[in-house]
Amino acid sequence: MDFQKLIEFRHSANNFLPNIPITEEDLIPIFNDVKLAPSAYNLQHTEYVVITNPELKEQIKEAAYGQYKVHTATAVIIVTADRYAYKQTERLHQGMVALGMLTEFELNKMIEENHSFYEGRGEPFMKEEAIRNASLSSMFFMLAAKNRGWDTCPMIGFNAEKVRQLLEIPHTHEIVLMMTIGKEKESSRRLRGYRKPVNEFVKFLN
Questions:
Q1: Cα 15 to chain centroid, rounded
Q2: Phi then psi dihedrals of residue 4, to 5 deg
Q3: Which of 88, 107, 134, 170 gives a 20 to 30 Å CA spacing to 41?
Q4: Sites in the chain below the pLDDT cut of 50
Protein backbone atom coordinates (compact mmCIF):
# COMPACT_ATOMS: atom_id res chain seq x y z
CA MET A 1 0.00 0.00 0.00
CA ASP A 2 1.17 3.54 -0.70
CA PHE A 3 2.63 4.90 2.54
CA GLN A 4 0.49 8.03 2.58
CA LYS A 5 -2.64 5.92 2.22
CA LEU A 6 -1.36 3.52 4.87
CA ILE A 7 -1.02 6.17 7.55
CA GLU A 8 -4.35 7.74 6.60
CA PHE A 9 -6.27 4.45 6.58
CA ARG A 10 -4.81 3.06 9.80
CA HIS A 11 -7.30 3.57 12.63
CA SER A 12 -7.49 2.13 16.12
CA ALA A 13 -10.24 -0.45 15.64
CA ASN A 14 -12.69 -0.71 18.53
CA ASN A 15 -14.74 -3.61 17.17
CA PHE A 16 -13.94 -6.49 14.84
CA LEU A 17 -15.84 -8.76 12.50
CA PRO A 18 -16.53 -12.20 14.01
CA ASN A 19 -15.24 -15.54 12.75
CA ILE A 20 -12.25 -14.17 10.85
CA PRO A 21 -9.33 -16.57 11.38
CA ILE A 22 -5.70 -15.53 11.45
CA THR A 23 -2.91 -18.05 11.08
CA GLU A 24 0.81 -18.15 11.70
CA GLU A 25 1.17 -17.95 7.92
CA ASP A 26 -0.70 -14.61 8.05
CA LEU A 27 1.34 -13.28 10.94
CA ILE A 28 4.87 -14.35 10.04
CA PRO A 29 5.16 -11.91 7.07
CA ILE A 30 4.06 -9.11 9.41
CA PHE A 31 6.70 -10.06 11.96
CA ASN A 32 9.28 -10.31 9.16
CA ASP A 33 8.50 -6.65 8.46
CA VAL A 34 8.60 -5.81 12.18
CA LYS A 35 12.08 -7.21 12.67
CA LEU A 36 13.38 -4.33 10.53
CA ALA A 37 12.29 -1.82 13.18
CA PRO A 38 15.12 0.17 14.77
CA SER A 39 16.37 -0.73 18.24
CA ALA A 40 19.11 0.77 20.36
CA TYR A 41 22.45 -0.86 19.54
CA ASN A 42 20.46 -3.42 17.50
CA LEU A 43 19.60 -5.20 20.76
CA GLN A 44 16.09 -6.06 19.55
CA HIS A 45 14.53 -5.81 23.01
CA THR A 46 10.97 -6.56 21.87
CA GLU A 47 9.22 -9.93 22.11
CA TYR A 48 5.61 -10.73 21.21
CA VAL A 49 3.05 -13.22 22.53
CA VAL A 50 0.18 -13.98 20.12
CA ILE A 51 -3.05 -15.33 21.62
CA THR A 52 -5.61 -16.93 19.32
CA ASN A 53 -6.90 -19.60 21.72
CA PRO A 54 -10.53 -18.56 22.46
CA GLU A 55 -10.52 -19.61 26.12
CA LEU A 56 -7.22 -17.87 26.85
CA LYS A 57 -8.38 -14.81 24.92
CA GLU A 58 -11.42 -14.56 27.21
CA GLN A 59 -9.11 -14.69 30.23
CA ILE A 60 -7.09 -11.88 28.69
CA LYS A 61 -10.37 -9.99 28.21
CA GLU A 62 -11.00 -10.23 31.96
CA ALA A 63 -7.49 -8.90 32.62
CA ALA A 64 -8.39 -6.03 30.26
CA TYR A 65 -11.37 -5.11 32.45
CA GLY A 66 -13.84 -6.80 30.11
CA GLN A 67 -13.15 -4.64 27.06
CA TYR A 68 -15.32 -5.96 24.25
CA LYS A 69 -12.73 -5.40 21.52
CA VAL A 70 -10.65 -8.19 23.08
CA HIS A 71 -13.61 -10.55 22.68
CA THR A 72 -14.27 -9.66 19.04
CA ALA A 73 -10.62 -9.48 17.96
CA THR A 74 -9.25 -12.38 15.96
CA ALA A 75 -6.13 -12.38 18.14
CA VAL A 76 -4.61 -10.50 21.03
CA ILE A 77 -0.92 -9.63 21.01
CA ILE A 78 1.08 -8.83 24.12
CA VAL A 79 4.19 -6.73 23.52
CA THR A 80 7.01 -7.29 25.98
CA ALA A 81 10.56 -6.03 26.15
CA ASP A 82 13.67 -7.47 27.77
CA ARG A 83 15.22 -4.99 30.20
CA TYR A 84 18.47 -6.93 29.99
CA ALA A 85 18.71 -7.20 26.21
CA TYR A 86 22.23 -5.78 26.39
CA LYS A 87 23.35 -9.17 27.76
CA GLN A 88 22.51 -10.64 24.34
CA THR A 89 25.09 -8.48 22.55
CA GLU A 90 27.46 -11.39 21.85
CA ARG A 91 24.74 -13.75 20.59
CA LEU A 92 23.17 -11.09 18.35
CA HIS A 93 26.42 -10.02 16.75
CA GLN A 94 28.45 -13.24 16.59
CA GLY A 95 27.22 -13.87 13.05
CA MET A 96 28.78 -10.60 11.94
CA VAL A 97 32.15 -11.91 13.13
CA ALA A 98 31.63 -15.10 11.12
CA LEU A 99 30.87 -12.99 8.04
CA GLY A 100 33.94 -10.84 8.56
CA MET A 101 31.86 -7.71 9.26
CA LEU A 102 33.26 -7.44 12.79
CA THR A 103 36.51 -8.60 14.36
CA GLU A 104 36.57 -10.45 17.68
CA PHE A 105 38.23 -7.36 19.14
CA GLU A 106 35.39 -5.11 17.92
CA LEU A 107 32.76 -7.51 19.24
CA ASN A 108 34.39 -7.71 22.66
CA LYS A 109 34.61 -3.92 22.76
CA MET A 110 30.90 -3.71 21.85
CA ILE A 111 29.99 -6.17 24.61
CA GLU A 112 31.99 -4.20 27.17
CA GLU A 113 30.52 -0.85 26.07
CA ASN A 114 26.92 -2.10 26.09
CA HIS A 115 27.27 -3.59 29.57
CA SER A 116 28.87 -0.40 30.84
CA PHE A 117 26.23 1.81 29.19
CA TYR A 118 23.20 0.02 30.63
CA GLU A 119 24.54 -1.10 33.99
CA GLY A 120 26.01 2.35 34.61
CA ARG A 121 22.56 3.94 34.22
CA GLY A 122 20.72 1.42 36.36
CA GLU A 123 17.34 -0.29 36.45
CA PRO A 124 15.11 2.76 35.82
CA PHE A 125 16.98 3.46 32.57
CA MET A 126 16.79 -0.19 31.53
CA LYS A 127 13.01 -0.09 32.02
CA GLU A 128 12.69 3.14 30.03
CA GLU A 129 14.83 1.71 27.23
CA ALA A 130 12.76 -1.46 27.08
CA ILE A 131 9.55 0.56 26.75
CA ARG A 132 11.06 2.94 24.19
CA ASN A 133 12.27 0.17 21.93
CA ALA A 134 9.08 -1.90 22.23
CA SER A 135 7.03 1.19 21.37
CA LEU A 136 8.99 1.65 18.14
CA SER A 137 8.50 -2.01 17.30
CA SER A 138 4.77 -1.87 18.09
CA MET A 139 4.20 1.02 15.70
CA PHE A 140 5.98 -0.96 13.01
CA PHE A 141 3.66 -3.87 13.76
CA MET A 142 0.51 -1.78 13.39
CA LEU A 143 1.65 -0.32 10.08
CA ALA A 144 2.83 -3.69 8.77
CA ALA A 145 -0.45 -5.31 9.78
CA LYS A 146 -2.49 -2.61 8.02
CA ASN A 147 -0.31 -2.95 4.95
CA ARG A 148 -1.31 -6.63 4.83
CA GLY A 149 -5.00 -5.98 5.35
CA TRP A 150 -5.37 -6.30 9.13
CA ASP A 151 -6.67 -3.75 11.62
CA THR A 152 -5.28 -3.21 15.09
CA CYS A 153 -5.77 -1.29 18.30
CA PRO A 154 -3.05 -0.56 20.87
CA MET A 155 -4.23 -0.83 24.48
CA ILE A 156 -2.88 0.15 27.89
CA GLY A 157 -6.09 -0.54 29.85
CA PHE A 158 -5.27 -3.92 31.39
CA ASN A 159 -3.90 -5.48 34.56
CA ALA A 160 -0.31 -6.22 33.61
CA GLU A 161 0.33 -8.53 36.55
CA LYS A 162 -2.68 -10.69 35.69
CA VAL A 163 -1.44 -10.89 32.12
CA ARG A 164 2.04 -11.76 33.38
CA GLN A 165 0.65 -14.62 35.47
CA LEU A 166 -1.63 -15.94 32.71
CA LEU A 167 1.15 -16.01 30.11
CA GLU A 168 4.05 -16.74 32.47
CA ILE A 169 5.98 -13.71 31.28
CA PRO A 170 9.30 -13.46 33.16
CA HIS A 171 9.94 -10.52 35.46
CA THR A 172 12.98 -9.60 33.37
CA HIS A 173 10.51 -8.35 30.74
CA GLU A 174 8.35 -5.25 30.75
CA ILE A 175 4.77 -5.68 29.55
CA VAL A 176 4.51 -2.65 27.31
CA LEU A 177 1.28 -2.91 25.32
CA MET A 178 -1.65 -5.09 24.44
CA MET A 179 -2.77 -5.00 20.81
CA THR A 180 -5.91 -6.45 19.28
CA ILE A 181 -5.89 -7.52 15.63
CA GLY A 182 -8.59 -8.59 13.18
CA LYS A 183 -10.80 -7.16 10.46
CA GLU A 184 -12.47 -3.98 11.64
CA LYS A 185 -16.26 -3.80 11.84
CA GLU A 186 -16.38 -0.52 9.96
CA SER A 187 -19.97 0.24 10.95
CA SER A 188 -18.68 0.63 14.52
CA ARG A 189 -15.82 2.94 13.56
CA ARG A 190 -15.55 6.18 15.47
CA LEU A 191 -14.53 9.39 13.76
CA ARG A 192 -10.83 10.08 14.05
CA GLY A 193 -10.10 12.32 17.01
CA TYR A 194 -8.90 15.91 16.72
CA ARG A 195 -5.28 16.26 15.67
CA LYS A 196 -3.26 19.32 16.62
CA PRO A 197 -1.93 21.49 13.80
CA VAL A 198 1.78 21.09 13.20
CA ASN A 199 2.67 24.44 14.75
CA GLU A 200 1.30 23.25 18.10
CA PHE A 201 3.67 20.30 18.44
CA VAL A 202 6.73 21.23 16.38
CA LYS A 203 9.29 23.93 17.14
CA PHE A 204 11.72 24.86 14.38
CA LEU A 205 15.02 26.35 15.55
CA ASN A 206 16.76 27.96 12.57
A1: 20
A2: -60, -45
A3: 170
A4: none
